[in-house]
């Protein structure tokens, strides 16, 4: 089973970087500077932001169907372009403990797995081997935030 992991589209976030602190606050967004690596996993590049890089902490709805609707804070780095990984786990995911949640076409969770850092590839393939699984959402297990959507390739 082959799979693809794509970073979020940066287009909706780009205009936010031009806003001042008050305008961001009104939108529930916080501007930060990455002060550790790893520590600020960008959901667009799927890697940790470089130390000193500008990031925004924003709320993101990762699953908008039925009772499993989910949203959480995510980081987006300034100037980021969407990354795409085929049959490979991106750096920001590979170095973290992940909760992998498999969903069917109706948005219902059909399976879930907890994987240690560096062990996601086999678990992703196992979940996607089930033909009823439409996609897998990866979340950072420690903080619970959305990491990436995983789809069959």
UniProtKB/TrEMBL annotation:
InterPro entries tied to this protein: DUF1203
One Pfam entry name: DUF1203
The protein, known as: DUF1203 domain-containing protein
Protein source organism: Sphingomonas rhizophila
